[in-house]
Predict the 3D structure of the following.
Amino acid sequence: MAEEAADWRRRYDALLARHEAAEARWEALRGALVRLASRLALAAHGIDPRLDEALESVRARLRGELDPEALERETAALAALLRELAEPAAGGERAGRVSREEPPAPPGPPPAPPAPGGPRRGLLARLFGRGGAGTEAGGGELQALRAGIERLVEALPADAGLSSRAESLRAEVREAADAPALARVLAGAAELLGEAGRRLERERAELEGFLAQLDDRLQELDGFVRSQDEAREAAREDGRALDEAVRGHVEGIEDSLREAHDLAALRRAVGERLEHVREHLARFREREEARYRQAREEAERLRGRIDALEREAAGLRERLREEREQALTDPLTGLPNRLAYEERIAQEHARWKRFATPLSLVVVDVDHFKAINDRYGHRAGDKVLRALGRLLRGRLRETDLAARYGGEEFVLVLPGADREAATAVAEQIREAVAGYGFHHQGEPVRVTVSCGVAAFGEGDTPERVFERADAALYAAKAAGRDCVRAG
């Protein structure tokens, strides 16, 4: 029983550690949102006084004690205001997103300074606001803001009930062409984060309830062990008392034998002594039986409580396993996501440093993906990504990893493959995609990919190798796409 109590205590500590880790992840995510909201508020300052006030209200709400309902109201009001502010520019042509497919337009002349006494324009309003062409610095600021929001959206919890909304936000942030559009995405991210926070609170309450029950069971188990110790001590005391009583009666019989003058008197004395011994034995058996029944009933009751707790713990472990799988899975393609890639590449890098077996990366990017979305719609683009995910899974070994890195970009981890072998794998994938035969509503759609390859070498880190593979991918794009380059 003592070992069982120690085992339950270890399980309690493990569950508590998971609970604390979940809270730490939540706080890190909220911190990222606070930093982004602060940056957006600073950059957009001056576009409209109401926007300044709304963004500052969201910042204040995020910095304080988080109230998901209040945050949702704040972000809903912010989204409505952003829609209102965007209406005058709705008829204008929207700039496409900056990507590998379409480099940013060359910078135009800087906007004229505001007239004296006129309304003060904020940083984003001056750089790429309404009526002003963006400068090179402004384009960089917009891209930095987009990259930050994209990282936040990628880090949103992969809860099964929120994954579709998170995927929509990822598409929106890729298509956002100006500051108001990015602000709307940020408002949506805040709303989604609020919902994730409410779910986390419910899960935390459920976990705390389970831990409280577990603590109660542990206390019961400790009490049962103590009661068993007390019962054993009581039995030992009863045994000593019985032994002393029997020994005393035996000595009395011996004295009667020495002092008896006739047989009748001796018989009476021995009979009385034996009757006393029988009474002591009967009382001892009664107490032992009572202790046995009590211990058995207590053990059965406790066993039933522990069995119920075991079932509850098994359900909780299964749900934690499912939630971890969801957190590591891209909801659109079903492939591992960027977080899963980062975990796996860290493991493979450690293995490579220890055993020096070949290890390579391949970065795969869909060519002209924005054009596919623009011509056939985002559903068609999503269909292409899902099909590519299936194709990658079917072309790789069980020991390899294919992960969606973000947008239309995928990364392959190939343990045991050197630079030449990885290039051959990338070439096979490129040919398979080119010959796949994509269609949209009966119309053939040409889909190709470009690949960049890099292998680990002396002193390499995962970041350095990925940068080389990414640079090789740029070279493949520059060479006309639908090709493979190794770095």
Notes: DSSP finds 13 helices and seven strands in the chain. The longest strand covers residues 359-366. Residues 1-89+100-327 form one domain. The first helix runs from residue 2 to 43.
